[in-house]
Write a structure and sequence with these properties.
Layout: H1 2-9, H2 11-18, H3 22-50, H4 56-67, H5 79-98, H6 102-111, H7 113-125, H8 130-155, H9 166-172, H10 174-184, H11 188-209, H12 215-256
Helix pairs in contact: 5-12, 7-8, 7-12, 8-9, 8-10, 8-11, 8-12, 10-11, 11-12
Length: about 260
Amino acid sequence: MFPLVQRCCFPTPFKLQKLTGPRLLLYGKNKATCSSLGLRLQRDVCLLSRSPSLNPASVYATKLQAFHTSLPFFKKKTPEESEAKDSGILQRSMKSLKDSRKPALYLSLAGLIPFVSVPLSMAIQGTYYPELAFAQITYGAVTVSFLGGMRWGFALPEDSPAKPDWLNLANSTVPPLLAWQALLFKDATHGAVMLVMALGIALHYDISLLPTYPRWFKVLRTVGTVVIALSLLATAALKAVSEMQLSNSGNKWQNTK
């Protein structure tokens, strides 16, 4: 077995012992050629082994790099990009508002008149009327109750995508309860703030939490909520200005005495 291994692995020494004369010179030339080829192959193998592409460490690093995930780099948006995005959202919203059903659009706009007329009339006359403010809060409480009960009408039909479960029906009673609490406040400012909170909760239910309505109705609900909230806050601001003017005039009257 060992001689066979020697003949297979180390054939050169045994052949050199038997070769003499010209055959020895010919074999020497062949050996020089083979040795030069062997040196070239050895040099090429060394260069390839030193190459980064075949280095085990580099291969391992490449594998790790393939599975490596870094944190995303958030590029700060330029004012032009933000304005373009806002204008695109505004255009889509206006298009959805134009696609809304005409009865719903006209009735919703007509329902905003009592809210807008109260602070507008008081600002024109320059006088705060507590009766008008209370009437506005009462109308706001009725509107919030209507928005809360609207979910019941949407969830009760059998073919409705919203189920008449605890989530839909119980959450629909939250805005009316807040509206009732707004009527119990003696101060109109507190009542206006409570109604703004109720409007925000009702809008959150209709837009994101519960099964959604059509896009045009969501846009209509958002616009109506913003107008109502601004009108209520405007009435509260007029009340604060009126009280400030009364206190200043009272101080002046006492100083003249």
